[in-house]
Write a structure and sequence with these properties.
The complex is a heterodimer of chains A (about 250) and B (about 250). Chain A is built from eleven helices and no strands. Helix content of chain A is about 85%, strand content about 0%. Chain A is mainly α and about 250 residues long. Chain A has a domain of about 150 residues: MetI-like fold (Orthogonal Bundle). With about 250 residues, chain B is α/β, with parallel strands linked by helices. Chain B is built from seven helices and ten strands. In chain B, a hairpin with a 5-residue loop joins strand 9 and strand 10. The longest helix of chain B has 25 residues. At the A-B interface, helix 7, helix 8 and helix 11 of A face strand 6 and helix 2 of B. Bound molecules: adenosine-5'-triphosphate and magnesium ion (MG). Magnesium ion binds next to helix 1 of chain B. Chain A: It comes from Guptibacillus hwajinpoensis.
Chain lengths: ~250, ~250
């Protein structure tokens, strides 16, 4: 058996408190764990919730990948040019201060319901955290690494791919972590205020018709999906590209 | 003998400093081993960076094989004071880096890299990450990474200064053997008097104001006997030079 960890207590602890408190209320007001589990089974059989989950994850991945690619490109230019960096600074500060989902109503007016405004919210939410980290990564590249590469014959795009890129990846991945958390939360919120699909919409809709079990199920899923993405995408990404930065 | 490196009236100052190097004039013969010796902060690294093409805004003329130096090139191999190894690559991939950048075909490349890693005694560590190596091993990787590309000119900036005495001795010995075999023209920056005398054909003495004080020819057979009286004479002479530099530095402060 592996070693005992305090973290094993956390979820049972919450389940017990939840059961105890919810037992004081009728289940249509405050459903307990068993009610939510039953709800999950029946939703699974209907298949509708699964579609909402797929819709949300699809938006998240498309938006996030687009955003990360753009942030990398802009970040590399900004890291290389002081003028461009100075130009970007007020924009970054401004967008960092605005909650991304505040843009959702405008984007929905502009782009209609459906995937486009949601993807736009994700891009607004994650672009700047990744950008800032990429710029920081660029600023911390030791000059001797660049010189070493040049005197070994690296030029132009090879210098970019084989030196600049690996140098900035650890910082960029920190940005990806932050951006990922913000964009997931913003997506759900945006779906709640103006969507017709997605996990956020599922929660908002069930709230309106007074289905408390579904609302709680949706909330639990948001957290589990984030954990799931962390294990499936972010951790392997970090392991593959940035573990050297932790060791050295 | 042809001179590969030729400096005429070279002066240089960083953007925010007045002048670091003044009227440097010397030339270096093919296949020779030259050291640059001087007190800390006198501009030794700066001079080496100029020759490597890292600082193109100098005045005067620096030529390598008759061509003016304008930018870094694979013909000037450089080993950095801080080594500048790539921490995201293994030992093998670090050594392979230059050949890869120069589009050497995979087959040839791998043979050369393997041979070079064997030469520096790190075969067992080929697939190790840089962070898992000791200081002396890192030093060997840095040398191997540069040597494998067979540069016409080898520039070494205090490559052994961070090492313990034993490792330093071993690596100096290896460098000497290597230079005897391959005969790459080498410029070594050091502030170790012994290292300079033990390895060099010529020593350029750089004073603290950034000008060449003297160029000393070391006329002793290699490998050199550190206890011989000639060796000690050179030692005394260079020690005297460094001591005077320190004194004039102190007077400058007062
Ligand atoms: N990038 C830089 N920008 C401005 N000044 C610099 C820079 N690099 C070095 N200097 C200055 O130039 C002078 C010479 O520095 P340099 O590194 O060439 O000395 P050095 O002889 O190699 O010293 P050490 O033996 O300590 O390595 C020093 O006064 C230093 O402060
Ligand atoms: Mg130096």
């Amino acid at each position: 058996m592996s070693k005992w960890k305090m973290s094993w207590l956390a979820i049972p602890f919450v389940l017990i408190i939840w059961s105890a408190v919810s037992a004081q209320y009728p289940s249509y007001l405050f459903p307990g764990p068993i009610d939510v589990l039953n709800e999950a089974v029946s939703q699974w059989q209907k298949g509708e919730l699964t579609n909402h989950i797929i819709v949300s994850l699809k938006r998240l991945i498309i938006g996030f990948v687009l955003s990360a690619i753009m942030a990398f490109i802009v970040g590399i230019f900004a890291g290389a040019s002081r003028h461009f960096r100075e130009f970007l600074t007020p924009l970054v500060t401004y967008f960092q201060a605005t909650p991304p989902m505040a843009w959702a109503p405008l984007l929905i007016i502009l782009l209609g319901l459906g995937d486009a405004p949601m993807i736009a919210v994700i891009i607004i939410a994650s672009f700047f955290p990744i950008l800032i980290n990429v710029i920081q990564g660029m600023n911390h590249i030791p000059a001797s690494h660049i010189r070493a590469a040049q005197s070994l014959g690296a030029k132009s795009w090879k210098l970019a791919i084989y030196v600049y890129l690996p140098e900035i990846i650890p910082a960029a991945i920190s940005g990806i972590y932050v951006g990922f958390a913000i964009s997931w939360r913003s997506l759900v919120a945006a779906e709640m205020i103006g969507g017709n699909s997605g996990i956020g919409y599922f929660i908002a809709f069930n709230g309106q018709i007074g289905n408390a079990s579904s609302v709680l199920l949706g909330i639990l899923l948001i957290g589990f999906l984030a954990l799931f993405m962390d294990y499936l995408l972010l951790k392997p990404l970090h392991k593959r590209f940035a573990s050297w930065a932790v060791r050295s | 003998m042809a001179s590969v490196v030729q400096l005429e009236n070279v002066s240089f100052g960083y953007r925010d400093h007045s002048s670091i190097l003044q009227d440097i004039d010397f030339s270096i013969n093919e296949n020779s081993f030259v050291s640059i010796l001087g007190p800390s902060g006198c501009g030794k690294s700066t001079l080496l960076n100029l020759i490597a093409g890292f600082l193109p805004n100098y005045s005067g003329s620096i030529q390598i094989e008759g061509k003016p130096v304008k930018k870094p090139s694979k013909d000037q191999g450089f080993v950095f004071q801080d080594l500048a190894l790539f921490p995201w690559l293994t030992v093998f991939k670090n050594v392979e880096f230059g050949l890869r950048m120069q589009n050497i075909p995979k087959g040839t490349r791998e043979v050369k890299v393997r041979d070079m890693i064997e030469l520096v005694g790190l075969t067992a560590y080929s697939s190790f990450p840089i962070s898992s190596l000791s200081g002396g091993m890192k030093q060997r990787v840095a040398l191997a990474r540069t040597l494998v590309t067979e540069p016409g000119l080898l520039l070494l900036d205090e490559p052994f200064s961070a090492l313990d005495a034993q490792t330093r001795d071993v690596l100096q010995e290896e460098l000497l053997t290597l230079h005897n075999n391959v005969k790459t023209t080498t410029i070594l920056v050091t502030h170790s008097i012994d290292e300079a005398i033990y390895l060099s054909d010529q020593i350029v003495l750089l004073s603290k104001n950034g000008s060449v004080k003297e160029i000393v020819n070391i006329d002793l057979e290699k490998p050199r006997d550190r206890s011989s009286s000639h060796y000690n004479e050179y030692q005394r002479k260079l020690y005297e030079f460094l001591r005077n530099e320190r004194q004039s530095l102190n007077e400058g402060v007062i």
